[in-house]
Amino acid sequence: MAMAAILAMLVTCVAMISLPMILGAVFESGDGNGVKDNPSLSANSGGSLGITKSDSANQKVWRAGEGASPGSGTSTGSFTPATGSGGGRAGAAAGGLSEGFYGSSCPQVETIIEQQLRVILQADIGQAAGILRIMFHDCFVQGCDASLLLVRPTTEQTATPNNASIRASSLRALDTIKAAIEAVCPGVVSCADTIVLSTKIAVKLSGGPIIPMRTGRRDGLSAASNQTVVNNIPPPTLNITALKQNFQNQGLDSRDLVALSGGHTIGRAHCRFVDPQITPTISTDLNTAFALNLSRICLPANNSIKARQTTHLDFITQNLFDNSYFQNVLSKVAIFHTDAALTNASDTLQLVQLYAQNQPLFFQQFSQSMIKMSQLNILTGQQGEIRKKCTTPNQYLNA
């Protein structure tokens, strides 16, 4: 759909929908309960949950490297997608990781996770975004070691960036998945790999790409400090220079920044993060009609249940993993300043424009960037441990 058409549709919807209907569509507890099911999660004619024929076709295109020419319908000239560390073949070793790492020790692991996630996402499709967010917040802080899941002897979950945005229900979902794995393969699959594989499958079931994640991570023994979390998780107020630097500190480049930002195609935001964009004045990041809609939802004068109020990150295809986020950014109907900031540098703007018109290419780069992120400062071999319970190091289980 053309960007102008999307914006026109949004403005029309804002004008036509009454305030009670708007609030009914977006209200939920801060924990993500009450999100309506995604119709794409119903079994389709192919019998594959959450994957439509169109999605499958897109995935075949980008996995084969066909049909993703940057010159097709774009003005990006010589841009070509990066191969990065995510361009390896299946089974290739990467820093101690490999595809099929559990082929002998727990060959059912992805089947177990998918069975659990089908039930979880049927009840609340918003958990896909919750699990994706957990992976991001875990990997950006002392690496992908599942330290975010620890609650004893210390925890990262109460650190300022996490306390405000990590869903307790998504943490419980991962506990459920880990327990199901332990029932079949005790002491084999790490919590770090459980996060990564759950994210892979949640993205797939939401209509996104099938990411060939490598496994073999081990779990960290301790949580990071509050200051370490604050220093590494980018707040939604950063300008493009600071945002790029934050990602560069993790070994990630502009392609990774833009592609991973595309994860905002699913999920919700608490109004306390929206308010700086709409008060005391409306930010120039936002289309005026869209900002007025957000004001009706979020401003205290209009909202007696402010502490729990949330709003969709993507109003167009709310629970579907697609490229509409980039169309929203260009139309100024994306919520955070960090979303709008992607248009303030020529390289990131070029990528936003490209992905807005080419979903298979976005899927390709998102896959590569997710693989790169999943390999940040990992523990392998004899490092760390394989936690039996993700909330607790093994030494404390019988304490």
From TrEMBL:
Binds 2 calcium ions per subunit. The keyword Glycoprotein applies. Transmembrane segments: none annotated. It is an enzyme of class 1 (oxidoreductase). GO terms for molecular function: heme binding; lactoperoxidase activity; metal ion binding. Its cofactor is Ca(2+); heme b. Pfam families: peroxidase. Ca(2+) 2 binds at residues 265, 314, 317, 322. The record marks 133 as: Transition state stabilizer. The keyword Secreted applies. The active site is at 137 (proton acceptor). Its EC number is 1.11.1.7. It is found in: Secreted. Residues 64-83 have a biased composition (Low complexity). InterPro entries: Haem_peroxidase, Haem_peroxidase_sf, Peroxidase_pln, Peroxidases_AS, Peroxidases_heam-ligand_BS, Secretory_peroxidase. Removal of H(2)O(2), oxidation of toxic reductants, biosynthesis and degradation of lignin, suberization, auxin catabolism, response to environmental stresses such as wounding, pathogen attack and oxidative stress. Belongs to the peroxidase family. Ascorbate peroxidase subfamily. Belongs to the peroxidase family. Classical plant (class III) peroxidase subfamily. This is Peroxidase. It comes from Ceratopteris richardii.
